């Protein structure tokens, strides 16, 4: 197959070259496109009606079309959010000028909407699809693309993973569809479905795309829309398109942002004074024994150190973007370069990213062949600050200094054991190491480069203009590598191992490396025909897709700083190359009758290499109808109602990402050199059979969607409301294998079912619409209810569910459960008993089953981490040359387990029985918990309501208009990211994916100043 | 139009061809892992598969110390190591050991209110049956038919055939462990291939018969070999020692005593040439390798067999308070395990006993336990150490080299004596001699010799000789003292002075996870 495409590619490039030299007797049309307030409209699409000649306006709203045959020509301008405008001109000179002024149409029904493997128009859309285009993106210092639309789309929750530079986001569409497998949506960038896996040195798959290059996000939510992606469609699909070349002379833009990040919040721990007071006055008890107290009082120092202040610092980010866009002869191009340099607020962390984006979009053979060549490339250099500093800074003894005054351990203060004999380790075992030393002494740097390149040929067949053939071939290749260097002096890497000569070795000198590649090739035919005689339009697509994923994971031995190899650390295999492939056939029919009724039918057949050959093909169908009520005569004339469309869809989609690449095969693997077994007098590596399941298949989700699109007052008020019901069956679940029946005790099986049902409501209004004063308001609200409806192969009334949610503290404590009848990851805890004053009683819980003792049978299902109501508010205001806006989000009824409080806010943590003092959460002042026993960790006291309202972004801008003698356009803006959070939650941030808050890297509050120059 | 049809047709043909090419492209194999055919194509492969069958005793996965766990969904080092979980189930529920930690469910052993969801019991049960599953697979892959079809013959095939008896011992041992702890576990043999019908439950008495018949069958095949070449491997002595233990407890398992058989098999082992190590302390130190009194061991190595369970756990967890970890050959203590005064008081003069088996660390420790979770309450027990008997520390300061004896000669002495007292056909004078041999070693002279034996003395002697080696719960059950009020120790049942608990707690519950997964299983009474 690869060979086939290579030939076609060569063929194509040949034609690209010769096309530049061939010209007919033609003229040019150029002009400017502005909005109602005479502001230029960049990025509007300009097309010669009836042909495929077209372009886009440049940043100043100008366009230029070349090579147009003389005669009557009509030019149509389309721009998302505005009414189409067509003007006719008699072209009989070499150059004509045609200007346009578009009127606002909040919801343009002819707007082109990207759907999988093709496009359609908004009015023909039957699925639940939301498009957000660049003009509605959140403005400000955004380094990861998905943040552009956070809070803007009902049913889509985008939660930034952490405050670390380059950190990705958790994206959840309609609550996801999976329990144990991934809930991450499929992301398709310019036709290349991305590999979800991260790469060593970069946790975020999307983070390597420059947000400034993105033109639109299209979110496909229901099965009518996602079924075309078959066994990857269950969690929704996000299609990203990037900006293409404009027409005419090169247009340059330059943007520069300077951002200042501040530490918005840190963990509330005891101040040095509080700490001294508590340690000195702690009553002796079974936890604080007199001997321990006496010993630990000696560890109270005279310094006052705010360890969190020592590890966090304000950060500086500089983000610069340059782009040039235009058409060279007949070749539209857009080239962009970006350079980002971002410091983390955890000291020493830094991300330096250079990006390159190139789009070439020539049209050949009288525009019958449209070519899109797209390359996105990035080079990231990261310095990772060691996250261990976060937790230890919260708990390190605040009465001890950062530096010890001597040169041991790099000069950093460490807990020393006064009784350690000569030759013994002088450090106190299991005590935390100096938080600052983690940052200063661990040097973890990585280089990741990634290139996504693809070429798409869209060819209108000469013998049948309505039939188009589309070929798309692309690669997504990423290489990551890095090193970890720690000097021998570091306390946290002191005496890590004994070398073969029995000498203790310290420090680290290690490397890591990984490559990923993802090859995609698609071919489809599209037939689009208006059959005016029967008032019908049919749009048929059929095609195939092949995608191959491959990773190359390198393994290395472990070395001390001086390069001594840790004995037996050589990997068995230096390289592993896991692979998986998908081969698919798909088809779609969109039939529209009288512009009033639209039917869409989709089917995809996917074959996955992860599934055993006999069962590997899955069929995913969907059907949908839309009824445009507003086309009925009795409504057509309405001045109030401008659009009303009813949508109904049903479909089935799949999810195969939770299946291991080879989990249907019974394979053996060899153990590592440190896991050999001694038989007699020889050590032998072990051959272990792996657990397997030959019957594994994809998860299957059936989605029913009922939606209404509405528009009032010429669509000044418009939006959608959707009701959905998703039922996922054959959940990919890690289930217990009957003991003795497999080579592992838990394995992935298709067991169980889960539903998500919900309502999404979106409302957009143009509240004020004056020539020089506009206010746009957007509001969305989502309600989602998640329920597990089955979890077992066999009915077992005694089955309580599957415990999940590991926490820090104790070993093996799990604080959540997946159980039938509740939402996933519901907290499963003991019910705390309080005294009359409302103070929780240490270790006293409600004996819920009344058997006279507190055992795990008294655990109960409490709140859930996911929340069920999600709101988004956004607004853009323009007044003369000023503009401003904000984005706010709110989640309600989401709960978080405060693991920082539970693991550090106890006497046992402060008076550690391993004989060192630790600081802890100020929660100890509320509870006075001893921290002994194994139950208190699971108290519902620690599960807190984390509902919040967050101002994600607040921005203001001023357009200076023409500067530099009219040669350039200047825009200056200022914004605040993460401006404020309103919540009752006690921890550092209420928005914790998964609901367990344990040493979270705080999200910074960022103040940014930027300028944009167009010339 | 005709043209169109032809072109479309050509396209369809081209597509169909590429489809079939893609079908093949979907058959992928991993790069480094191999199929069972590859593993069992050579004698070396058999040896490495055999290493896994044995190694699952000692290690928790395919990477040391953690990573690539065999038992998942649990803490690999804490909940899924055989010895660590077996030891907790056998010792923490008794007077011999207490632990300070807050791991989920760990205090339930002291409180004696464990439930079917206890993570340690789940890990132990699944670990035992995991090893059984590995044995079954090895047996299926090593039949004569399979060996000859793979061209393995002569001495190579003889060796593999001999390995079959060894792995059957391991399976019998694990079924003994399951029978003793859980009573009525799921049951599977090489007759139950992976993917076949679900394992059926077996009753305790029936399981007893199966173990007995297996051990008797392999007793004659296994070699009588005490050289280093068979160290850590199943020999004739191991099968006979397990039979002796099985018969001694037959009343508990089946309701019918088998004291004659217990005597017979204990004697077989005693007469096989094992001798007592001269220094008692040495049996739990790094140079215990191939000790003359060891019958069967789990082998550990700080460099090549790394695990957070086993003797690494027994060494680290027992260090805390004012103990200096370096004195025991490790980097630091985990501040967990101590003992109650019930064990200490079995030694005349307690911690300062002339009986050298008393190995208690008392500095800063109180004999009385006020709080189970305070390390300094209760004497520490540095029985297992990462040092040799001459004081040389282990090669790795985290992972301990000392091996763990599953069976050693003194247990056979004690079985002989007890079974004789219980009416077995042993000789009373011989029995007394066996016990005094142990006591003479313990005292270094004849001062500790006793003149007569009683059952109570035997139970106490077992505690003195075998404490912290995973016998205590079995012993207390055999004496009817595990759950009843006839014998109380500090914190038995979660009460400072001890209390009786429900009778059904003599066996542990079948883990709820298996009850759910396997609809053929019935939970033990009471749970």
Provide a descriptive summary of the structure in words.
The complex is a heterodimer of chains A (1015) and B (527). The two termini of chain A are 45 Å apart. Chain A has 1015 residues and is mainly beta. Chain A has a 22-stranded antiparallel barrel. Mean pLDDT of chain A is 90; it is low at 1-6 and 8-24. With 527 residues, chain B is mainly α. In chain B, 44% of the residues lie in helices and 4% in strands. Chain B has 20 helices and 7 strands. In chain B, the strands form 3 sheets. A two-stranded antiparallel sheet of chain B has the order 2-6. In chain B, α3 (43-58) packs antiparallel against α7, α9 (154-182) packs antiparallel against α10 and α16 (409-421) packs across α17 (428-443). Chain B starts with a helix and ends in a 10-residue tail after the last helix. At the A-B interface, β26, β29, β30, β31 and β35 of A face α1, β1, α2, α3 and α7 of B.
């Amino acid at each position: 197959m690869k060979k086939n495409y290579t030939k076609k590619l060569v063929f194509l490039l040949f034609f690209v070259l010769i096309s530049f030299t061939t010209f007919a007797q033609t003229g040019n049309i150029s002009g400017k496109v502005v909005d109602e307030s005479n502001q230029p409209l960049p990025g509007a699409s300009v097309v010669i009606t009836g042909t495929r000649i077209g372009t886009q306006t440049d940043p100043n709203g100008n366009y230029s079309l070349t090579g147009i045959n003389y005669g009557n020509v009509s030019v149509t301008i389309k721009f998302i959010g505005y009414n189409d405008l067509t003007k006719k001109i008699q072209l009989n000179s070499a150059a004509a000028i045609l200007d346009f002024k578009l009127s606002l149409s909040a919801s343009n029904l002819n707007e082109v909407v990207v759907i999988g493997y093709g496009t359609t128009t908004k009015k023909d859309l039957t699925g639940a699809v939301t498009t957000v285009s660049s003009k509605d993106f959140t403005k400000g210092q955004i380094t990861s693309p998905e943040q552009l639309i956070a809070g803007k789309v009902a049913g889509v929750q985008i939660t930034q993973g952490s405050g670390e530079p380059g950190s990705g986001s958790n994206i959840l569409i309609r609550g996801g569809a999976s329990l144990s497998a991934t809930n991450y949506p499929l992301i398709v960038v310019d036709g290349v479905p991305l590999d979800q896996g991260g790469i060593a040195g970069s946790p975020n798959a999307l983070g390597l795309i420059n947000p400034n290059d993105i033109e639109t996000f299209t979110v496909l939510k229901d099965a009518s829309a996602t079924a075309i992606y078959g066994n990857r469609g269950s969690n929704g699909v996000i299609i990203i398109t990037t900006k293409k070349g404009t027409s005419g002379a090169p247009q340059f833009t330059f943007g520069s942002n300077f951002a200042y990040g501040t530490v918005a919040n840190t963990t509330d721990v005891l101040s040095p004074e509080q700490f001294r007071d508590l340690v000195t006055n702690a009553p002796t008890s079974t936890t604080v024994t007199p001997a321990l107290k006496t010993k630990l009082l000696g560890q109270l120092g005279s310094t006052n150190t705010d360890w969190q202040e020592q590890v966090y610092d304000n950060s500086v980010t500089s983000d610069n973007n340059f782009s040039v866009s235009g058409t060279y002869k007949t070749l539209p191009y857009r080239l962009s370069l970006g350079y980002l340099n971002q410091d983390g607020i955890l000291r020493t962390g830094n991300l330096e990213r250079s990006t390159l984006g190139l789009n070439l979009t020539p049209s050949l053979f009288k525009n019958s062949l449209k070519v899109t060549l797209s390359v996105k490339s990035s080079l990231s250099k990261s310095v990772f600050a060691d996250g261990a500093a976060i937790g230890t800074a919260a708990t390190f003894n605040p009465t001890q200094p950062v530096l010890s005054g001597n040169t041991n351990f790099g000069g950093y203060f460490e807990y020393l054991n006064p009784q350690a004999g000569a030759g013994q380790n002088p450090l106190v075992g299991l005590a935390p190491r100096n938080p600052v030393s983690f940052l200063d002494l661990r040097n973890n740097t990585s280089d990741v480069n990634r290139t996504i390149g693809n070429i798409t040929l869209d060819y209108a067949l000469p013998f049948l203009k309505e039939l188009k053939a589309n070929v798309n071939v692309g690669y997504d290749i990423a290489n990551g590598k890095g090193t970890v260097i720690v000097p021998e002096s570091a306390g946290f890497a002191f005496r890590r191992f004994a070398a073969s000569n029995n000498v203790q070795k310290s420090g680290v000198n290690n490397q890591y490396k990984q490559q990923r590649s993802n090859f995609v090739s698609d071919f489809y035919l599209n037939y689009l025909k208006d059959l005016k005689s029967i008032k019908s339009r049919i749009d048929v697509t059929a095609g195939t897709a092949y995608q191959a994923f491959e990773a190359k994971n390198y393994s290395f031995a472990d070395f001390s700083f001086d390069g001594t190899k840790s004995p037996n650390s050589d990997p068995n295999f230096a390289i592993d190359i896991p692979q998986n492939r998908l081969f698919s056939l798909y088809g779609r029919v969109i039939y529209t009758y009288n512009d009033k009724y639209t039917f869409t039918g989709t089917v995809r057949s996917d074959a996955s290499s992860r599934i055993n050959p006999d069962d590997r093909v899955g069929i995913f169908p969907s059907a949908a109808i839309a009824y445009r009520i507003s086309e009925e005569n009795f409504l057509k004339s309405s001045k109030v109602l401008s659009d009303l469309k009813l949508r109904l869809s049903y479909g089935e989609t799949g999810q195969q990402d939770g299946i291991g690449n080879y989990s249907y095969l019974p394979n053996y693997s060899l153990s590592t050199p440190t896991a050999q077994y001694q038989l007699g007098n020889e050590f032998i590596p072990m051959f272990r059979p792996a657990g397997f399941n030959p019957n594994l298949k994809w998860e299957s989700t059936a989605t029913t969607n009922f939606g209404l699109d509405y528009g009032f007052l010429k669509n000044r008020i418009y939006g959608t409301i959707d009701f959905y019901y998703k039922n996922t069956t054959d959940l990919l679940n890690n289930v217990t294998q009957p003991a003795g029946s497999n080579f592992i005790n838990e394995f992935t099986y298709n067991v169980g079912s889960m539903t998500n049902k919900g309502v999404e409501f979106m409302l957009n209004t143009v509240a004020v619409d004056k020539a020089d004063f506009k206010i746009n308001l957007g509001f969305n609200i989502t309600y989602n209810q998640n329920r597990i409806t089955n979890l077992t192969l066999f009915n077992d009334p005694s089955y309580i569910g599957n415990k999940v949610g590991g926490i820090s503290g104790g070993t093996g404590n799990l604080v959540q459960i997946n159980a039938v009848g509740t939402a996933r990851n519901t907290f499963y805890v003991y019910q705390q008993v309080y005294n009359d004053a409302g103070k929780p009683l240490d270790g006293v819980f409600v004996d819920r089953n009344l058997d006279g003792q507190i055992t795990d049978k008294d655990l109960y299902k409490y709140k859930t981490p996911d929340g069920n109501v999600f709101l988004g508010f956004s607004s853009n205001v323009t007044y003369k040359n000023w503009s401003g806006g904000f984005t706010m989000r709110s989640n309600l009824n989401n709960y978080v387990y405060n693991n920082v409080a539970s693991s550090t806010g106890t006497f046992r943590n402060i008076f550690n029985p391993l004989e060192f003092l630790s600081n802890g959460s100020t929660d100890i002042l509320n509870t006075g918990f001893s921290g002994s026993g194994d139950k208190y960790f699971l108290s519902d006291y620690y599960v807190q309501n984390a509902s919040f309202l967050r101002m994600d972004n607040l921005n203001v801008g001023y357009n200076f208009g023409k500067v530099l003698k009219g040669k350039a356009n200047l825009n200056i803006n200022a914004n605040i990211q993460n401006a404020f959070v309103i919540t009752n939650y006690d921890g550092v941030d209420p928005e914790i994916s998964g609901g367990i808050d344990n040493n979270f890297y705080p999200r910074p509050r960022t103040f940014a100043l930027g300028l944009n120059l167009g010339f | 139009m005709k043209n169109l049809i032809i072109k479309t047709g050509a396209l369809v043909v081209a597509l169909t061809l590429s489809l079939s090419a893609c079908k093949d492209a979907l058959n992928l194999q991993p790069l480094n892992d191999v199929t069972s055919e590859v593993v069992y194509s050579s004698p070396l492969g058999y040896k490495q598969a055999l290493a896994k069958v044995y190694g699952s005793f000692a290690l928790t996965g395919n990477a040391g110390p953690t990573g690539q766990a065999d038992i998942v969904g649990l803490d690999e080092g804490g909940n899924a190591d055989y010895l660590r979980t077996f030891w907790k189930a056998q010792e923490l529920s008794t007077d011999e050991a207490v632990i300070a930690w807050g791991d989920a469910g760990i205090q339930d052993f002291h409180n004696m209110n464990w439930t079917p969801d206890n993570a340690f019991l789940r890990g132990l049960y699944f670990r035992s049956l995991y090893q059984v599953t590995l044995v079954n697979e090895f047996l299926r892959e090593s039949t004569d038919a399979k060996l000859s079809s793979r061209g393995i013959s002569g001495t190579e095939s003889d060796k593999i055939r001999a390995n079959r008896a060894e792995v059957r011992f391991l399976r019998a041992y694990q079924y003994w462990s399951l029978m003793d702890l859980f009573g009525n576990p799921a049951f599977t043999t090489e007759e139950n291939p992976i993917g076949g019908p679900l394992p059926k439950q077996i009753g305790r008495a029936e399981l007893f018969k199966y173990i007995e018949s297996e051990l008797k069958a392999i007793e004659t095949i296994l070699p009588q070999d005490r050289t280093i070449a068979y160290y850590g491997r199943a020999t004739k002595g191991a099968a006979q020692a397990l039979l002796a233990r099985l018969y001694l407890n037959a009343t508990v398992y089946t309701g019918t005593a088998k004291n004659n058989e217990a005597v017979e098999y204990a004697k077989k082992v005693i007469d096989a040439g094992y001798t007592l190590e001269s220094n008692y302390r040495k049996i739990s130190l790094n140079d215990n390798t191939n000790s003359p009194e060891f019958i069967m061991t789990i082998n550990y190595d700080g460099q090549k067999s790394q695990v957070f369970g086993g003797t690494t756990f027994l060494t680290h967890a027992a260090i805390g308070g004012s103990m200096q970890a370096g004195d025991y050959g490790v980097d630091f203590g985990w501040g967990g395990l101590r003992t109650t005064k019930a064990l200490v008081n079995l030694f005349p003069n307690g911690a300062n006993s002339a009986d050298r088996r008393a190995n208690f660390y008392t500095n800063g420790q109180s004999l009385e336990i006020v709080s189970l979770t305070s390390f300094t309450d209760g004497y520490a027990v540095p029985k297992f150490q990462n040092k040799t008997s001459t004081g040389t520390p282990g090669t790795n300061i985290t992972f301990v080299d000392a091996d763990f004896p599953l069976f050693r000669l003194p247990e056979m002495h004690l079985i002989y004596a007890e079974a004789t007292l219980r009416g077995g056909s042993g000789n009373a004078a011989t029995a007394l001699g066996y016990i005094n041999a142990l006591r003479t070693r313990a005292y270094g002279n004849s001062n500790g010799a006793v003149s007569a034996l009683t059952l109570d003395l035997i139970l106490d002697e077992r505690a003195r000789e075998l404490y912290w080696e995973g016998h205590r719960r079995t012993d207390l059950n055999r004496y009817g003292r595990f759950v009843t009020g006839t014998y109380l120790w500090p914190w038995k049942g979660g009460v400072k002075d001890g209390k009786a608990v429900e009778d059904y707690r003599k066996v542990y519950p079948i883990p709820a996870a298996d009850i759910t997964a396997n609809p053929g299983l019935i939970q033990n009474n009471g749970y």
